[in-house]
């Protein structure tokens, strides 16, 4: 039953029934009814939507335009919702038209939509549908700022009604789109989380919402990496809507991304199911095309992508994916022109690389293949904008920089790749190849890292990688490591048996220098059924291994390997040239020339072979042929070969030397100028060519410009030292030494020759030894010169020049020795020996038959022999005189020696006597000290016993004793009173007995002994004024007052009491004195008045001092 609407008739209960499926073609008829009956505006909107659903857009617009006119606004002023609904419908229509219509009308349609939404807002500013329409308009503009505006519009809706489901869904959609456009991963994840929360809230508020809501939930969970939950959401969509194409495609994508056979099969089935539901869905078609591309079914890819392009409409991303699939198909088939066009079309469909970056990567590959480096670099850089650490794009950019000559940028790019992915062996391999001409050590480390990564991953090791590592070790002179690497690269083969000498009995017959051209060894091995396989990819490595053996002077094995290479690959020219080099090093120039000609049979215009042949012809003095050969080498390279130009320059240089011998100065100058011109030309073309710089320096030196040539040689020497070890230039060391010698700097020249000899020739080159001997001869170091020439003669015994120079050196040494004003007999005897050897050497040369070829003649030898004999006769006379003088000198020295010995013996006796006297003195002093100590101990024992006796004993003493004691005190006071008075100021005394005698205890035994020694040493103590001189060695105990009374009487010294008081008073100097008033004993009255007064005076003085 068809649906219909009923329009109420004005002022009546009747209604007009309008069947929606039978709407009139002319909308004016229905408009007349709506206006005449003043029908509700919702009926206007229903009829307009029906027209739109039937595809009658003009009638739809006619009804809505009439429904939004001024008359309707005036008549239906109180009806807000319906008026707003009509305006929003118009706004939605123009929004849709802007996104799907022609591009030139896009902006106008957006303006129209905006005007209708604004008009609706003026009717009611808080109507949610209007704000939602405005938000959708912002979304349609697809701009970041517009998305922010749309988000703000949805926020306004949700502020008025947080449970507004369309607002929540719109907000979720905007947040998801913002997450898609956000470049920061963390922020984009936040957008997806917020969008998911809004979708879930909508589902909670309206559980019966359409299935597409759950589709949005699945998309958010997919972006958040929650693949399991996303799969559940898509499955729920299909449960609610089994024909939902988007959910079917999403499940298919999830299965395809697992890269498992079963899941891939199920994913393809899902895609086919989606294709059955919508055969023209471009998204489905693109996914199917992507699958069939990987299966190699390119005809299906092209069919599907063409259908997708026809149905993509104006959706740029879907069109870009279709173009990309089509471009990949042509790319894989090698049709680079079509692939490039479709890659370009795919890139042009998208606004930003972030939306779909793969076309830029493919486009960059095609441009790189077609050598469009600039555009290719731009394409890969766009990929890096989206994925800054994309390793493949960085590698491509590194290759582009390398091809553009920007090696620094290329190296930095590959270093970045290795930092991003330290396990990328290919990146380390390419980095090592880039570093080879820049930094050999860094290149070696990178290549070794690549080798280790390949070993750990179990991948096959490229022979090229091992070969390069071996060459780098070879250049660093790490020959052991180089040998190990080459052997690892070569593996097992016949060369192992050859090197391990398992076939020694066969090798012996073919390994010497005479058989360098003979390949009979290998024919014999074939007859013996030995395996002689040599894969083509191992030839270079085997050649390098042979080169290593040659460098280590194992030329026998090296020549066998070279011949084996030639046997297997007769066209390998370098094998012939290395054999020629071995023959040349052995001075077998004939064999070397034959081997070079064998190489020229393979390639008659091979420049290296021609140049080597010319060099050999120069060494054999075949100058005309050498010049022709050099010109042939130059013509073979169209005149651009540096080696050929330098060889021609060398020819002109040697021609100049030959013309100088013939005194042709003009010819010499012409050849030198030509040599300079050729070397300078090469140097201009190749500024780093050390051989050209060396040749230029030689020409300047020949012209006498030593300073210029020395600067050139020094620069070449420094460059050679910092370069590869394979590039060795001993010639520049020799040339620099020649310059020093020419300038008279003999020590520098000698040092340079010695360094060159040690560094390059291991001290075994007779020519350099001859140069060194010349420098030593000019420096007047004739003995060193002779030793150097003898070393050279040991290396080249048949060289008459060396023998002649040895004789001249001995002759010159002898002459200089005889000319010395002071010389010893030993020197003259050695001179005689040298002269005899020189005569013998010159006479031997006279007997040689080949000396004429070296520029000698018999007359020259005879002259030297006569001169040496003359010196020999003079030396004998000088020797006799020197011997007599030496005998006299020995006698004088012997006399002087005897005198010296006698003086030395006397001095030793005197020293011994002094030592004995000193020793006796020390023994006497020790003995005396010991006696004093024993006596002091005995007196101490006496005093200890006397301390316990009665104090009345002193009273029993007789008066004469007191008088005698008084006399002693007077004598003592007269001599040392002043000293005692000074010391009494410091001492503390305590008188305790009734008779006035003090009993003093020892406080410090060491101070008592010191005072005793001081008193004993003072000659003024213990004597009267009238007394004679003091004895030389008084008794120390008596001087200290420690002897007994009988001894005192005998010696006439001071009384015992006074001595004790003095000794004890000085023992307590460090203590605080405690003085009591002295009481006079009756026994003291017997003394003289002067003595008593003096005692009182002393006491009073002491008290005054105390008071003070």
Automatic annotation (TrEMBL):
Bias kind Basic and acidic residues: ranges: 1002-1016, 1090-1101
Claim: Zinc-finger is one of the keywords in the record: no
Ranges of biased composition (kind: Basic residues): 968-985
Repeat (TPR) residue spans along the chain: 211-244, 357-390, 391-424, 730-763
Stretches for region Disordered: 943-1108
GO biological process per UniProt: regulation of DNA-templated transcription; transcription elongation by RNA polymerase II
GO cellular component, one term: Cdc73/Paf1 complex
Coiled coil region boundaries: 872-942
A GO molecular-function descriptor: RNA polymerase II complex binding
Keywords on record: Coiled coil, Repeat, TPR repeat
Gene3D superfamilies (UniProt xref): Tetratricopeptide repeat domain
Pfam families given in the database record: TPR_11 (PF13414), TPR_2 (PF07719), TPR_7 (PF13176), TPR_8 (PF13181)
PANTHER family attached to this UniProt entry: RNA POLYMERASE-ASSOCIATED PROTEIN CTR9, RNA POLYMERASE-ASSOCIATED PROTEIN CTR9 HOMOLOG
Protein name: RNA polymerase-associated protein CTR9
Organism lineage: Eukaryota, Viridiplantae, Streptophyta, Embryophyta, Tracheophyta
């Amino acid at each position: 039953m068809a649906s219909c609407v009923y329009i109420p008739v004005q002022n009546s209960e009747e209604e007009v029934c309008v069947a929606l499926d039978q709407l009139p073609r002319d909308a004016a008829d229905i408009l007349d009814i709506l206006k005449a009956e003043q029908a509700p505006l919702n009926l206007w909107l229903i009829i307009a939507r029906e027209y739109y659903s039937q595809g009658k857009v003009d009638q739809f617009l006619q009804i809505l335009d009439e429904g939004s006119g001024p008359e309707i606004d005036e008549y239906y002023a109180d009806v807000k919702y319906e008026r707003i609904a009509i305006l929003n419908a118009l706004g939605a229509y123009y929004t849709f038209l802007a996104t799907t219509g022609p591009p030139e009308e896009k902006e106008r349609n957006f303006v129209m939509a905006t005007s209708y939404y604004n008009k609706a807002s003026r009717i009611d500013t808080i109507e949610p549908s209007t704000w939602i329409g405005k938000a959708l308009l912002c979304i349609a503009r697809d701009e970041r700022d517009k998305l922010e505006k749309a988000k703000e519009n949805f926020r306004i809706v949700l502020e008025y009604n947080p449970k507004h489901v369309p607002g929540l869904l719109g907000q979720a959609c905007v947040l998801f789109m913002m997450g898609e456009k956000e470049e920061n991963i963390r922020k984009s994840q936040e957008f997806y989380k917020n969008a998911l929360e809004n979708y879930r809230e909508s589902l909670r508020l309206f559980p019966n919402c359409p299935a597409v809501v759950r589709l949005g939930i699945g998309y958010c969970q997919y972006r958040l990496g929650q693949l399991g939950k996303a799969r559940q959401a898509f499955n729920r969509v299909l449960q609610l809507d089994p024909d939902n194409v988007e959910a079917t495609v999403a499940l298919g994508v999830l299965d395809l991304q697992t890269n498992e056979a079963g899941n891939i099969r199920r994913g393809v089935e899902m895609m086919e199911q989606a294709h059955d539901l919508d055969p023209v869905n471009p998204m489905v078609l693109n996914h199917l095309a992507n699958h069939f591309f990987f299966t190699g079914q390119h005809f299906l890819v092209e069919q599907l992508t063409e259908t997708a392009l026809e149905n993509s409409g104006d959706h740029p991303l879907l069109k870009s994916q279709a173009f990309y699939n089509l471009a990949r198909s042509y790319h894989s088939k090698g049709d680079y022109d079509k692939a490039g066009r479709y890659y370009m079309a795919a890139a042009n469909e998208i606004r930003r690389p972030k939306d779909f970056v793969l076309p830029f990567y493919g486009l960059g590959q095609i441009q790189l293949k077609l050598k469009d480096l600039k555009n290719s670099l731009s394409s890969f850089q766009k990929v890096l904008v989206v994925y800054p650490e994309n390793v493949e794009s960085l590698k491509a950019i590194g290759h582009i920089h390398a091809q553009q000559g920007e090696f620094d940028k290329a190296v930095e790019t590959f270093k970045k790749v290795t930092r991003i992915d330290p396990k990328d062996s290919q990146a380390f391999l390419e980095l090592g190849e880039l570093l080879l001409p820049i930094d050999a050590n860094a290149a070696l480390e990178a290549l070794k890292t690549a080798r280790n990564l390949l070993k750990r991953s179990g991948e096959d090791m490229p022979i090229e990688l091992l070969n390069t590592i071996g060459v780098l070790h070879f250049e660093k002179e790490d020959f052991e490591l180089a040998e190990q690497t080459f052997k690892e690269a070569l593996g097992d083969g016949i060369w192992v048996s050859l090197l391990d000498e398992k076939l020694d009995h066969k090798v012996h017959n073919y390994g010497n220098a005479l058989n360098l051209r003979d390949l009979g060894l290998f024919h014999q091995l074939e007859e013996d059924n030995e395996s002689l396989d040599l894969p083509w990819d191992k030839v270079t490595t085997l050649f390098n291994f042979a080169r290593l053996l040659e460098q280590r002077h194992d030329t026998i094995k090296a020549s066998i390997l070279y011949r084996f290479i030639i046997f297997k690959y007769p066209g390998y020219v370098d094998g012939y040239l290395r054999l020629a080099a071995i023959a040349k090093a052995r001075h077998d120039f004939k064999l070397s020339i034959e081997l070079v000609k064998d190489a020229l049979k393979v390639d008659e215009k091979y420049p290296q072979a021609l140049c080597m042949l010319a060099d050999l012809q120069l060494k054999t003095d075949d100058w005309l042929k050498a010049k022709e050969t050099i010109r042939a080498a130059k013509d073979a390279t169209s005149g651009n070969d540096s080696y050929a130009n330098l060889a021609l320059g060398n020819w002109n240089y040697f021609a100049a030397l030959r013309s100088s011998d013939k005194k042709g100065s003009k010819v010499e100058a012409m050849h030198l100028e030509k040599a300079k011109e050729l070397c300078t030309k090469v140097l201009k073309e190749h500024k780093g060519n050390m051989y050209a710089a060396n040749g230029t320096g030689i020409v300047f030196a020949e012209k006498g410009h030593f300073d210029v040539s020395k600067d050139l040689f020094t620069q070449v020497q420094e460059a050679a030292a910092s370069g590869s070890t394979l590039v060795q230039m001993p010639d520049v060391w020799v040339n620099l030494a020649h310059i020093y010698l020419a300038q008279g700097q003999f020590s520098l020249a000698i040092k340079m020759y010695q360094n060159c000899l040690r560094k390059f020739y291991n001290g075994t080159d007779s020519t350099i030894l001859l140069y060194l001997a010349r420098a030593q001869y000019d420096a007047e170091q004739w003995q060193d010169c002779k030793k150097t020439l003898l070393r050279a003669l040991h290396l080249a015994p048949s060289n008459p020049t060396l023998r002649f120079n040895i004789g001249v050196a001995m002759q010159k040494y002898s002459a200089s020795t005889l000319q010395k004003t002071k010389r010893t007999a030993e020197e003259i005897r050695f001179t005689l020996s040298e002269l005899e050897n020189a005569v013998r050497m010159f006479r031997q040369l006279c007997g040689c038959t080949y000396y004429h070829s070296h520029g000698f003649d018999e007359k020259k030898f005879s002259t030297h022999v006569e001169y040496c004999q003359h010196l020999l006769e003079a030396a004998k006379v000088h020797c006799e005189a020197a011997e007599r003088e030496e005998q006299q000198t020995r006698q004088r020295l012997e006399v002087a020696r005897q005198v010296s010995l006698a003086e030395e013996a006397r001095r030793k006796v005197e020293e011994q006597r002094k030592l004995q006297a000193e020793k006796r003195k020390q023994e006497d002093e020790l003995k005396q000290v010991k006696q004093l100590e024993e006596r002091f101990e005995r007196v101490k024992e006496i005093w200890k016993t006397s301390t316990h006796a009665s104090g009345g004993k002193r009273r029993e003493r007789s008066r004469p004793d007191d008088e005698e004691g008084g006399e002693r005190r007077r004598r003592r006071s007269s001599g040392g009173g002043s000293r005692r008075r000074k010391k009494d100021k410091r001492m503390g005394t305590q008188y305790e007995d009734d008779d006035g005698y003090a009993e003093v205890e020892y406080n410090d035994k060491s101070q008592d002994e010191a005072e005793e020694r001081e008193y004993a040493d003072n000659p003024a103590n213990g004597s009267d004024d009238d007394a004679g001189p003091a004895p030389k060695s008084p008794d120390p105990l008596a001087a200290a007052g420690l002897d007994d009374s009988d001894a005192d009487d005998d010696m006439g010294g001071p009384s015992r009491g006074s001595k004790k008081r003095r000794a004890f008073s000085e023992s307590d100097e460090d203590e605080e004195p405690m003085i009591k008033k002295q009481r006079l004993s009756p026994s003291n009255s017997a003394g003289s008045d002067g003595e008593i007064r003096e005692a009182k005076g002393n006491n009073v003085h002491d008290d005054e001092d105390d008071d003070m």
